[in-house]
């Protein structure tokens, strides 16, 4: 998920009560773990100055997720802000919906993987409120053609892609 996407919702004061229901493919939790790079997002106040966002997912032996969101302020080499959360799958039929808790579980958010590459090279994520949307990739840099294909897919899912903000890749 988007680097500060989950934390952005939390810090923005919006608490979801219901998970999104639209999903296109089941998710293999083992293949979902690892690093995701934010490619694009719909605008939100918390990420307004965010660049080179990443989201690192790991799985505990008990099946829960640990999530580390990182956002660099102002530029890809800017100061890093880090948020940590933990969560669990809430839709065991598809494993595509999950709940992440921040601040020791005090604030919880529901998220859904709307679509993903067959090879888990990209995914599209939303929160209960469709104003929150992210395109994520396993690679920090995508070709213009790859980005265009993902944007077209987001548009097909009903998102206003004219408002997408494209994230700066991480500093090297």
Task: Walk me through this protein's architecture.
The protein has one domain (5-166): Calycin beta-barrel core domain (Lipocalin). The protein is 14% helix and 38% strand. The chain has helices spanning 5-11, 29-32, 144-156; strands at 34-41, 50-59, 65-73, 80-89, 97-102, 107-116, 122-127, 133-137, 165-166. The model is unreliable at 1-21 (pLDDT under 50). The chain is globular and about 40 Å long. It has an 8-stranded antiparallel beta barrel. The chain has 172 residues and is mostly beta strands. It contains 3 helices and 9 strands. The chain starts with a helix and ends in a 6-residue tail after the last strand. A hairpin with an 8-residue loop joins strand 1 (34-41) and strand 2.
């Amino acid at each position: 998920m988007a680097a500060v996407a989950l934390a952005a919702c939390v810090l923005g004061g919006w608490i979801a009560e219901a998970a999104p229901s639209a999903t296109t493919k089941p998710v293999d939790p083992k293949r979902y773990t690892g690093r995701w790079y934010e490619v694009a997002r719909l605008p939100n106040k918390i990420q307004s100055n965010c660049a080179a966002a990443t989201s690192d997912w790991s799985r505990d032996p008990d099946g829960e997720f640990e999530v580390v969101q990182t956002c660099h302020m102002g530029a890809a080499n800017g100061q890093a802000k880090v948020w940590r959360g933990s969560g669990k799958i809430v839709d065991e039929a598809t494993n595509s919906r999950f709940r992440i808790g921040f601040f020791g579980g005090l604030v919880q958010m529901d998220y859904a993987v709307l679509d993903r590459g067959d090879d888990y090279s990209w995914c599209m994520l939303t929160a209960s409120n469709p104003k929150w949307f992210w395109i994520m990739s396993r690679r920090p840099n995508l070709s213009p053609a790859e980005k265009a294909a993902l944007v077209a897919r987001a548009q097909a899912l009903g998102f206003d892609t004219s408002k997408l903000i494209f994230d700066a890749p991480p500093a090297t």
